[in-house]
Amino acid sequence: MLIAMLSNATTSYNVVSISLVLKIMGSPNVYGDVGDTVESTCSSALLAGMTFGQLLFGSLGDVIGIDRAMALTISTQVVGCIGSAAAFQTSASVSSVFYFLAAFRFVLGIGCGGVYPLAANMASKTQKKKDRGQSVALVFSMQGIGYIFAPILALLFIRLFGEDSPVVWRLLLGFGAIPGLWLLYLRAIQAKKMTKDLGGGGGGGGGGGIVASRKYGILANIRKEPKLGRKLLGTAICWMLFDVLFYGNVLFKPIVLEAAFGDSETITDTAIDDLILNAIGLPGYFVSVYFMGSLGPKFIQMLGFVIMGILYLSIGTTWNSLTNYKTLLLVLYGGTFFFANFGPNATTFLLPSMTFTHTCRSTLNGVSAASGKLGAFLGAILFEPVSHASGNDSVMLICSGIAMVGWLFTVVGVEAN
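The structure corresponding to this sequence follows.
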């Protein structure tokens, strides 16, 4: 359970730290402006790696066991973090350091992606059935801790070394390896203890589906999964729709923050803005943990989609007026983060580990998570052109419609228990 929680916190930190890193690297006294295309390559490399990692390590969880697969995915994260922190200029062009970084961000993404299906299933398999929902939700809540930790560390390093110091971005990237190394140490102790308890007869494999997956094969087990289409509608499609919404939120963030607080002129300003928004969303994670056992994931997911839809609709229809009421704008926008975390952000992570049978659970959890990353790609393709062509209010109205579709698919695809 501890390994699952820490791995999820580390993953979220490694995912979000890049935005501050790129801002530091783009400052005039470091590498300067290299253009949006080069910077977006660094961001999208991680997303592509995560999609691959979710599918790869999700499948490995059923083949070699959850525990062994988790050790591999954490090791991949550590390599990605160290390689990213060591990025250097390989040619006369300063862009080369960004492409070097992008290559290791892809490796890091593979490791980060693998944590999604494995951490959820690790938490699920170690708890009694009645406690699984809250346990997996608790593991997921560590995402919020990682999100908070990234701007806090950035502010600390900036205070120590200054905004334009190259040491800051390297420390931010390299720090992500430290929890991973500790997790590998914990994993080694756990494996040694299991081997000793079994009298030296092996152990450490973990994962209930390992025998069945080897005997019949993953694809055969997937074909035998009852109500597969309906289950994927409730897990994979809902996760994809939520990540489309989440990308819309991320795209809108600098616009809302500028309207509420003014232009973020320094890296410190950006880190403080990130910290404020992440702090607004943080309680939603723990509200999910508290109510998951009593309300159930289906109700929480429906509630989250509906309220997010209402909030997006409110922002979209009153955008021109809201810019004059900065506090109200921040409350409404922050509310979308709260009800994402007390809603589909938590439940889409949780549901696959409770929906599918153990023989292919990790694999289909990985498929569901990868569908979420497909949603992020769709959001990137959809929202930016809409924002330029029709305005930010149109983005929010589209998000409102997508949220209601997510509610409908939850009603149809997610079982009440």
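The chain has one domain: 2-413.
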